[in-house]
Amino acid sequence: MTFGKGCHLHLIDGSAFIFRAYHALPPLTRKSDGLPIGAVAGFCNMLWGQLTQNRGKSGPTHIAVVFDYSSKTFRDEIYDKYKANRPDLPEDLRPQFPLTREATRAFNVACLEMEGYEADDIIATLARQATEAGGDVTIISSDKDLMQLVGNGVVMFDAMKSRTIDRDEVIEKFGVPPERVVDVQALAGDSVDNVPGAPGIGIKTAALLINEFGDLETLLARAGEIKQPKRREALEGSADLIRISKRLVTLDAHAPVTGTLDDLEVREPQPGPLMEFLSRMEFRTLTRRVAEALKIEAPAMPDNSLTPAHAAEPASSPAAEPDRVPFLHDAYECIRDRAALDRWIAAIRDAGHVAVDTETTSLDEMRADLVGISLAVVPGQACYIPLGHRQGGDLFAGDALTEGQLPADTVLAALKPVLEDEAILKIGQNMKYDWKIFARHGIRIAPFDDTMLMSYAMHAGLHNHGMDGLSDRYLGHKPIEIKSLLGSGKSAVTFDRVPVDTAVRYAAEDADVTLRLWQAFRPDLHRAQVTTVYETLERPLVPVLAEMEMAGIRVDPNVLSRMSNAFAQQMAGLEAGIQELAGQPFNVGSPKQLGEILFDVMGVPGGEKGKTGAYATGADVLEDIAANTDLGRPAELAARVLDWRQVSKLKSTYTDALQTHINPETGRVHTSYSIAGANTGRLASTDPNLQNIPVRTEEGRRIREAFVAGPGMRLVSLDYSQIELRILAHVADIPALKQAFRDGIDIHAMTASQMFNVPLDQMTLEVRRRAKAINFGVIYGISGFGLARNLRIPRAEAQAFIDTYFERFPGIREYMDATVAFAKDKGFVQTLFGRKIHTPEINAKGPTAGFARRAAINAPIQGAAADIIRRAMIRMPPAIAGLPARMLLQVHDELLFEVEDGAADDLIAAARRTMEGAAHPAVHLDVPLVVDAGQGANWAEAH
């Protein structure tokens, strides 16, 4: 076919595919020889998806995959620092690059690269040739550098998000049309590629300037007209660099590409070469899928060929997924009568399981109205039961229910026996949400599986665990985005305003996806050796947390209001003092103005400006200035600004915001806990976050006074004492620390005595404080620099403290080194209870390596502490079942209860016994777990 009008060229950014595949998948190796192969597996799946999803009239007539050549390009001659900041390729990715080229050719797709030019230049050249010949072009990439090509028959397509990038999308991102993108990029620069740009000018400012002056050359010629002095100076002083930057970011659309567009015509894969490559790579599932599509027999291969790097068993991945049934949205059923509902209930009973999902009007389960329920029993077959859809598609269309919906009470009454039947497994994604929705309607779901928690147990540290991401990663399917139904911003509607026919496709798909994820994940739990973690630490926690969240905690708005007023007055006083020290009025809340006062007006040395041109005035900068008392007034000003910021945050984040979170029906705040939020197993509290209320300052502690017990009740707090240090003493096997915990000795004083040779009876508070900072700092891999900042002492002195610490307790250093070595070898670390925390960056180089190393050291300790309190929480309901009490909150190592007056002591005894014995029988610790307890009318008194 001669390329011309009516032809459609697809240009795939091959390098982007490789990196996306590498970072999206867990490390995978070929079973036969251990060759890293994860990026190749992901690349092949993505390429096959493009080839199969774009067939037919709307598909391409011509296609090519374009790669970057590995050597330098003409841009290095223009600017020798171009891309100088880029880190080296990961060692396990380097050998996979040639294999992706081989894969492209195996799929019978044109594979293009050219020495001296980047892939973007080849794409630009081919796109120009295609449009000049009268054809259309789709660039399959989300790379911002390619957006300058959009328009005149060229669009981009983000394959990961199934999103077309056209002229409007480019304007939304850059603030200018595609033909002016290079002008904006030249001004803003690019830190990733080391394009210099103009100092202090970002994308938004660059767009404003280009829109005002028309183009870059006009702007530079008229820079003297710019009123803002810093912008004017940046442009006038960097004109040459800006012009160089434009040359760097402008794609060469006349690269000497060999061959013609006709050479890129779509060709069917040749079964022989393709099967040979896929089988050699040992891609068992993809080989089978491709063979079925080509109507040939797949070559025999050993099962589970693709193996996660550093793991004993294979895990789920797009290259190792179950047989797939197509997602046919039009086949999903809408249940509008009782006969159809009964038919589905009978199918559920026959199957013994059902995936279930709810649609509501809000993410707040305590205020959400139930709009509909979706069910799935067999992949590809799902239904939606509309219950609360309203007429019209907007908020002004009235509140009458749309016709053709079964009464909610009727449906819930029919489903209740199924959802509570012990013989039928209910399957959900983030089941805690649906559990609470059904609980508010008198249904207690049991038993159940949760695909989000299955993924979390297997893949913590590798990726997040939301349904859309899991579906894309493990099913190769992108679900319908909720935003496409509800809209966004001020025009967004709630789900009850979505037309029923539209809702069916979205809601039923959710149940269908959940069922398929369950089928994929369930057998992998055992292979990944985390079944016990899921069964004992993750799934049983769901109803416990759901009950706590529904109970909520009473908050006195009057106390919060008084605190807000007091904080406002305190802020005003601090502002007056700060401005007096500055010698002039300024906005204390403006980091830019603060930086100018400190570094320009007051002359504090060492000020550093960021890309926006403003001085850095973060907490670390202010703490360093405040600690340098030789500076005089600037040090005092910095200290007061830190105080002002702390009070301001307490006011805005807590005393003001908490008032808006009080549920008007219950008079309580109902936080929501994320089970799969932190890699280590720690719970995260949101809407509102009650785990970050400061307790080290008097103002922070006062906020807890607003959390009060109900009439005739008391609040009881039980808190593990130094649990992470106890776990460290156990896992690192430190005799002195273990004995001190057994004897009930002050561990920080004992550490100080060991380090500084000071007898316990002569210990000072300052020496003990330093030992405490080191004890807790070591758990988090603190550096000499970090300890110096915490203690406000010279860095050399802080490093000497850390060195002495490891000399006194060599077992800790041995534990740290052994843990890092294990992580590098296995790709994960484990807690005492078998929880796996993956460490994908542990073998990286540069700053990332240091962070990954510290995280690997801390994860088994913090994770074990999280596991212990989880075990305690799961055992707590039966332990206190006979008492007039309920558990309300978990704040890391603390549990908060509400109990009737007169029963607090009994509750403390039962809860303490449960918490102190939570590790047994799974783990026998060499040190005792100790729980401190308190009680009072409010949280501050109890804690």
TrEMBL record:
Similarity section: Belongs to the DNA polymerase type-A family.
PANTHER family cross-referenced by the UniProt entry: DNA POLYMERASE I, DNA POLYMERASE NU
InterPro entries reported in the protein's UniProt record: 3'-5'_exonuclease_dom, 5-3_exonucl_a-hlix_arch_N, 5-3_exonuclease, 5-3_exonuclease_C_sf, DNA-dir_DNA_pol_A_CS, DNA-dir_DNA_pol_A_palm_dom, DNA/RNA_pol_sf, DNA_polI_H3TH
Pfam family, any one: DNA_pol_A
PROSITE patterns tied to this protein: DNA_POLYMERASE_A (PS00447)
Bias kind Low complexity: ranges: 308-320
Free-text function comment from the UniProt entry: In addition to polymerase activity, this DNA polymerase exhibits 3'-5' and 5'-3' exonuclease activity.
Keywords associated with the record: DNA damage, DNA repair, DNA replication, DNA-binding, DNA-directed DNA polymerase, Exonuclease, Hydrolase, Nuclease, Nucleotidyltransferase, Transferase
GO molecular function, one term: DNA-directed DNA polymerase activity
Quaternary structure and interacting proteins, as annotated: Single-chain monomer with multiple functions.
CDD domains: DNA_pol_A_pol_I_C, DNA_polA_I_Ecoli_like_exo, H3TH_53EXO, PIN_53EXO
DNA-directed DNA polymerase family A palm domain segment(s): 700-903
EC code(s) of this entry: 2.7.7.7
Annotated 3'-5' exonuclease domain residues: 332-526
Residue intervals of the 5'-3' exonuclease domain: 4-267
Gene3D superfamilies linked: 3.30.70.370, 5' to 3' exonuclease, C-terminal subdomain, 5'-nuclease, Ribonuclease H-like superfamily/Ribonuclease H, Taq DNA Polymerase, Chain T, domain 4
Catalytic reaction equation(s): DNA(n) + a 2'-deoxyribonucleoside 5'-triphosphate = DNA(n+1) + diphosphate
Name listed for the protein in its UniProt record: DNA polymerase I
EC category name: transferase
Region Disordered, residue ranges: 301-323
Lineage of producing organism: Bacteria, Pseudomonadati, Pseudomonadota, Alphaproteobacteria, Rhodobacterales
NCBIfam families: pola (TIGR00593), PRK05755.1 (NF004397)
